[in-house]
User: What shape does this take?
Amino acid sequence: MPIPPAGALDRLEKRLEDLPLLPDVVHRLMSLRQDSYDYFDQVAQALHADPGFATRLLQYANSAALGAGRPITSIQEAMLRVGARGAVDLVLAHSAARIFVPGYEWEKMLWKHSIDVAWLMRKLSVLAVDHRGEPDEAYVFGLLHDIGRFVLYLEAPEELRSVEETDWATPEELIEAETRICGFTHSELGYLALRKWRLPDALAEAVRWHHTQPLPLDKIDGRYRALNELLQEADWIAVAAERAEAGDGKARSELRGALDGRLRLRGTADNLEFTIQEALRESRRMLAALHLQ
Ligand SMILES: [Fe+2]
Ligand SMILES: [Fe+2]
Assistant: This one.
């Protein structure tokens, strides 16, 4: 690994030290058992306590594809529409986005990518050929996998800011550019950020190795091994879909080709394409409700 530019290590350590914590309510919500008798009430209570959460949830529940008929004006009704866990997903994304408020276009793109991957993980985890863990864990892993890029880019020189996710042909190129320019990778910084946020060690380790191939199996908790493989697929799909949407015909045919058998997912290419589009639509709705577009 190249030597980091002078002073960069100190500055990044300071950045991590100064990184605001996730609100306690997020930890509480994430640790609740969904099968407990008062899960719905506990989530509702947390949403009531923070006007920011409540406003976003109402907007999300009323967004075009979900909302039909009379507008929803209460938290309870909104939770019935999106589900209690759907509300928790929104709270986590909103809390992380309040820490890394997007100002530049690249930050917005990074949030779009993160929420796209989160939704792809949630939807595809149930279609994986081998068991890929719980959809909720899959969602959180997808949402936070690139959080280190926000930290890195806060500190990085301008040239790194111009290295957009869609500009590199393979993740290795991005990692190579980060290492060359900064001496750090976003995977390593993501690991440190999640530790700072007191999120589970197993999740932090999974983020740390999310670009490493082959995966260092001895370092990754069993629950995250298959999820890590799924993440690498979801990450690739998100980038390919983004390019295809921008009119890149080659990306579209590569994506279609991959759905025809390369990916370890169950279902015909048509079904998988439908699921991917569904995930990306969910992502758009969430981005709009969180004002991240
Ligand atoms: Fe990444
Ligand atoms: Fe990514």
User: Anything to note?
Assistant: Residues 113, 117, 145-146, 235 surround fe (ii) ion (ligand 2) (CB under 6 Å). The chain has one domain: 8-289. The mean pLDDT is 87. Residues 31 and 92 are 12 Å apart (CA to CA).
